[in-house]
Amino acid sequence: MAIDKIRQFYNEMFQAEKKVADYVLENQGQAVNMSIAELAKASGTSDATIIRMCRHIGYSGFYQMKISLASDLGKVSARDEVNGERGPQDSVSFFNMLSKNIADVSRSIDTESLLTCARLITKANTVYMSAWGNTGEIAADFAHRLARSGIKSFMSDMPEYAMRSLGLGDSADVLVAISHSGSSIHVIQAMKLAKELGIPTILITNTPQSEAEKLADHLLCTSVKEQPFHDFGGDSHLLELAVVDALLYFAGRKGGKSGKGDKTEMLMSDSKL
């Protein structure tokens, strides 16, 4: 359906939009697995041009068009294919792939960047979390574990409440934004607000050159392409979780306030055997 729509409205498109359309028509398999920034670079256009082209043919944005394109190609669920090749066919191969991906993260994120982010988190009055959809659970887990360590944190999956609460922050706080694609509108809005308030921002993502990256003061990008899932909404978030674990580990080594967390843990200890 996406391909049909591109062809249907092609003659009505502006010249820059046609460059996007031409690339998608000629490289359908590659385009469906690209981020908006990657497609902009490959087609020699911009994020804004891609969004205009998608809206021109009836979609709300690039992500919605990709879902339709993936459906056209029969690749909404690509568990048996990774970058055009057959993926793991047994449990050993599957877990070996995950292990390799985690090892690759160590080459994408340097130690100094990680330590800088850990220091910001440790010293912050409040660590605000921003995430949406699947990454929301990662942010909620991170916030809970920070609180357990004695570091004040805030997370809400209600965008309006999250934005209003972030609006009370200042430069003594920090915003940790988590977005696998780097294109979540709610996350981008939170990062823009943080920028206006002078709140330092840390972005955890798997997608380089995204809209969210442009707003981040500190970037922790995993940049791993060969993942076991490529279906929409089913992406693996193991790598983002690994980055969260690393931040928690180094935040603790940099003087976490675990004593405060221990007091509340003792109060709630009656709920566990």
UniProtKB/TrEMBL annotation:
The keyword Repressor does not apply. Keywords: DNA-binding, Transcription, Transcription regulation. It comes from the Bacteria. InterPro entries: Homeodomain-like_sf (IPR009057), HTH_RpiR (IPR000281), RpiR-like (IPR047640), RpiR-like_SIS (IPR035472), SIS_dom (IPR001347), SIS_dom_sf (IPR046348), WH-like_DNA-bd_sf (IPR036388). The keyword Transferase does not apply. It holds the Pfam family SIS. Residues 117-257 form the SIS domain. GO terms for biological process: carbohydrate derivative metabolic process. Residues 1-76 form the HTH rpiR-type domain. GO terms for molecular function: carbohydrate derivative binding; DNA binding; DNA-binding transcription factor activity. This is MurR/RpiR family transcriptional regulator.
